[in-house]
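Observation: inputs received (chain + 5-O-phosphono-beta-D-ribofuranose).
Thought: call the complex predictor directly.
Action: predict_structure
Action Input:
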Amino acid sequence: MQPLVSIIMGSTSDMPVVGKAADFLEKMEIPFELLALSAHRTPREVEEFATTAATRGIKVIIAAAGMAAALPGVIAALTDLPVIGVPISSTLDGKDALLSIVQMPPGIPVATVGIDGAMNAAVLATRILALSDPSIATRYGTWRSSLADKIVNANNRLAQIDTYSFKTN
Ligand code: RP5
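Observation:
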């Protein structure tokens, strides 16, 4: 199976967060690869990955890293594929990684999600792929519709609370 999304993490210690991106792509039936690469510890391998990803058929890259998180930016500097950055919380509550990833110079953007926002990175990757793949668009649309059910069910449960004299619904 040919992967459409690369999920890259700076270290396998990022996997508890990054796994949420993998879980979502699995749910959407989107083929992905899962790799550890480090801009600081394996810079040459990062270059090899980034410069060959497009020719391997990858459409979107999700790159997660913590601390001085250079990985997403370095990948974005070496490919024209869309790169979605996920700041991982570790030191400084992840604000170090957030600023490292989001503050890219003009011309080399990284689409940055919130700290530990790996699932949103996968949702964004899915939306990008859905633009040109009707079957992904259908699966995504079904999932998106189900989000409203959570609120409908919450209101049904709230309506059943009868411990207040002045509650009117
Ligand atoms: C970053 O350094 C990784 O993305 C990870 O979040 C952090 C710590 O890595 P380990 O020391 O746990 O391998 O590059």
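Thought: report the result.
Final Answer: The first strand starts at residue 5 and ends at 9. The radius of gyration is 19 Å.
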